[in-house]
Amino acid sequence: MTGREALGRRAGGLLLGLLLLASAGGVVALKLRSEEIVRRELPGSSLRFLPSGRTLKAVSFGYSSLLADIIYIWAIQYYSDPSIGDRFSRLDHIFGVISDLDPKYSEPYLIGALIAAYEARDPGLALKVLDRAMDKNPDDWIYPFEAGHYAQMMMKDYRLAQDYYRRAMELPGAPDIARRLYANALFRSEDLDSAWKTWLEVYTTATDDRIRKIASNHLYQVKASLDTRLINEAVARFRDRFGRPPLSLEQLVSSGLLKSLPRDLDDTPYVYDPETGETTTALIPWKR
Amino acid sequence: MAAVLAIDNLRKSFSPGFIPRRKEILKGVSLEVEPGEIFGYLGPNGAGKTTTLKCLLGLIFPDSGSLTLFGRPHLSLSARERLGYLPESPYFYDHLTAMEFLDFYARLFGLKKTERRKRIAGLLERVGLADAGRIPLRKFSRGMLQRAGLAQALVNDPDLLILDEPLGGLDPIGRKELRDIILEQKRRGKTVFLCSHILQDIEMICDRVAILVAGRIMSSGRLRDLVSEKIKFTEIEISGLKREELAGLGESLAGQEGRILLKVVGEDKVDDVLSLVLSRKGRVHSLLPRSLTLEDLFLDTVKSS
Amino acid sequence: MSRIGVIALNTFREAVRDRILYLLLFFAGATILLSRLLSLLTVGDRLKIIMDVGLAALSFFGALMAILIGTSLVHKEIDKKTIYTLLSKPLRRIEFLLGKFLGLVVTLLVMLSLMTLFFQAYLLLLGGGINGRVFLAALYIFLEMVLLTAVAILFSTFSTPILASLFSLSFFLIGHFSRGLLTLIRKIPAGFSRTGLRVLYLLLPDLENFNLKTEAVHGLSIPAKWLLTSAAYGLFYALLILTLAVIIFRRRDFT
To answer: What CATH number should be reported for the domain holding residue B114?
Structure first.
């Protein structure tokens, strides 16, 4: 190649290189820009189309339990994303699909109910999930057991709780506490202290890790409820006194409204949002 | 006058696949083609002829060395405007008709519509496809495709026509027609660069040749100079003598019907043979002086490398 | 006509003859027609299912067309050696590549238009009326197809059609799931790997930018800023891919 020709080619190559960098820069810049733009969400629109369980089972070619796993794992991520505002609207459907694909898979039932109860604050939905579990697994005591807890502690429906506990205690392998809970449901119990006591009993008498973990999660939730109630009361008093919400939780202590800051069951501090005045747990309880 | 094509110390090697070992194909090729001549580029298969052409046409990039066309860098568009190329076993767009196909290339040269139409009609006539203009190329026979390829190479009336093994698929009539076209190009003052290993045709039309063996130019120059007019040996066909009597005068090859074909080297030996035949009252059936052919030169060159 | 235009026209005429396009067109049409059956299984808004399925068909089959045609056409030139005579003409390699790209884009435009018109006609027949948002969604599907074509061409410059198709398909899948990387990034503590992932995330294609299906189906308003940013993103990304393709193609030896 002559010198001039080589130079010409090199100049072209340089131009292309610059163009490459420029377009890459443009891409990144526009990507950042697009992240700022929020797209309107419609209820249920974030999950537009999940076919029914029966359909999926038909097309899963014998891999239905694997598909159940995959959907369950996805569901966990889906429900941990607080930015998806309408995520609870399809909870029944999603966990129904998992149930259709693998009816014996117990964790999704329990976690689905937990999410419904504590995150969506819809204990009726939790019971729906557990009813389906009982339907497909009539000999498992854990489902009516859990259902009893939700009925009693969240819905304060003692009749319903009794029915569930009685069913649980009659199934093989049920722990002794089921009987006690049945008895307990016969009396009125109003406060969270009783819930704490009950769950603590479950925890200490648990025969395997699964129960222990579930009880621990419930204990976490109860403590969190107790603690946040305490904190919220203090925040209200702070507001009354100083005319504005505190900027941090430490201010509640320094102003003498609280003796000390409560921490959650894992000894992690609670998260406070000074703009809304709300206190939440640092992490999602059923992902501990 | 400046050389139409000048290659200086062209080197190219390839590394097949992922093997880091490089195979050197062209080991420093240099040649020049003068305007208005027909240049023959010869060599055995695998010598690197097609590689040289591909370097010239910008299909592959040489490792080192320079190539100039009409005094300009070989990759420049102005040089390629005056170039025409017919590849070996050409493939074309099956779905186009011959006329559409030529129209496509003509447009690339920026020819206007009326000019295109005129030129395409003329080209089809010239290559003998006047009746096949509207037939899609996928229906063409091998020979017809070759002609279409030639037409495509001539679409811009190139000052340099490069042909890679063009005579292969043609019947004797086709070969003659192609030779005629090449000679016509020369008459019009154009240059032709011909890659071939059909030596009879090269011998017939080329002015200068270069022989490439294993990536190196082993021999190059005017054909007439390389292939001397010196008589190499003489073939004499005689009868009426016995073989033993001719021993020592030349190499005898068996002939038909009692005839003997004798290969005699040297003028004086020929005289000896003739006088022997005369004295024995035998007959001379034919006497053929054989000079060095291109084939001989070719085989010798390849053998000696 | 410029040289790029000549190549583009020739490419278009060659591409339009490819039977794969019509096969995919047929399947897209069949899917749209069958959506009616699916809608009969639901209670309430039947039109929603048909819109959903129809737009999904346009997007899916459009992407397939872009990938399959893109990979096969460039490879055919190189494999069948028609490229030898072409590059010996006064044609720059970049003009060849751009001409091919343009020809393919026009082909896909025609195909997508046919599908969209068919779909809109079907909607009209079912009493859905003329929906401007459908055309807008289709336009952005087209943008996505343009980007996929560039990607298909890029991979064709250096690999076989099957590999190139696989790579292009991966690009498509990554493009639609790249937002999932965000959730992963949020969970990782700040540091080297987090920044690394963030950089990767910014460079990976985000094809969800062109997904207006939800807005079309639910009749949501689409902010103009979104439309402009997405279109510009698509064009810049296509430019990036094409530049890369030209760089590779320029230096390639055609043995």
So the answer is: 3.40.50.300
Whether residue C81 contacts residue B91, with contact meaning beta carbons closer than 8 Å, is answered with: yes
B204, B283: one domain:
no
In the 3-class helix/strand/coil scheme, how is C185-211 assigned residue by residue? HHHCCCCHHHHHHHHHHHHCCCHHHHC
Which of A16, A28, A48 faces C246 most closely, judged by CB atoms?
Answer: A16
Q: Which domain holds residue B150?
A: 5-226
CB C113, CB C25: distance < 8 Å:
no
Number of domains, chain B? 2
Q: How many CB pairs under 8 A join B and C?
A: 67
- Mean pLDDT over B179-191 rounds to 91
**Looking at the structure, do residues B117 and B237 belong to the same domain, yes or no?**
no
From C57's Cα to the closest Cα of chain A, the distance in A is 14
ipTM score for this prediction = 0.82
Residue type at position A154: M
Whether C180 has a pLDDT exceeding 80, the answer reads no
Size of interface A-C (CB pairs under 8 A): 68
The answer on pLDDT for A46 being more than 70 is no
Mutation site, C237, C241, C252, interface A, largest A CB count within 10 A: C237
* Calpha distance B72→B76 (Å, rounded): 7
pTM of model > 0.80:
no
Q: Provide the pLDDT confidence category of residue A47 given band limits of 50, 70 and 90.
A: low
**What is the structure's pLDDT at B85?**
93
Contacts of A42 in chain C (CB under 8 A): 214, 218, 220
B14 and B79 part of one domain: yes
